[in-house]
Amino acid sequence: MATDIVYVPSPNRTQASGGQTSGMTRTNAIAGQASINASIMTAAPRTSSGVHHHGEQDTIIYALSGKGSVLTEGGKKRVDLGPGDFCLIPKGLEHQEVNDSDEEVVWVITRSGDSANVVNVDNWTKP
């Protein structure tokens, strides 16, 4: 664990995180340094992630650019996020990130735990 400031290089020099879902690219910003981790999620236009959850990790999203959405409740509930918006996804909550727009979406993701835990599921298991 870190005992001093951890410098984070610009996102284009970070390595892809181990936790990925189809349709989204996640790059680590801070991982393995503390009891929280941070990454950048980039979604190309007209893409969506697979349905997934983050196990025991709470997730906070900060929408940096573009307009994207998070689906929950079997895809029935939709929360739209634009630049400057925050969103909390509680641990274990199945969700899907969606970019229905014609522009790239970039979110800063912070999670509990020293590295991202992504649990992909084939379909929604909880409506």
What is the makeup of the main sheet? 5 strands, antiparallel
* Average pLDDT rating: 84
- Provide the gyration radius in Å: 14 Å
Distance between the termini: 38 Å
Which residues sit in consecutive blocks of at least 5 with pLDDT less than 50? none
Give the spatial strand order of the biggest sheet: 1-2-10-5-8
Counting helices, strands and paired strands, the structural category is mainly beta
Please state the oligomeric state of the protein chains shown. single chain
- So what's the CATH class? Mainly Beta
- CATH architecture name: Sandwich
Instruction: Count all strands and give the number.
Output: 11
GO molecular function, one term: metal ion binding
Pfam families: Cupin_2
Region (Disordered): 1-25
Keywords: Metal-binding
Describe this structure in words.
This protein is mainly beta and 127 residues long. The chain has a single domain, classed as Jelly Rolls (Sandwich), CATH 2.60.120.10. It is built from no helices and eleven strands. The chain has strands at 25-30, 36-43, 47-48, 52-53, 59-65, 68-72, 77-81, 86-89, 96-99, 105-112, 119-120. The strands form three sheets. A five-stranded antiparallel sheet has the order 1-2-10-5-8, with no helix packed on it. Strand 1 (25-30) and strand 2 form a beta hairpin. It is globular, with a radius of gyration of 14 Å.
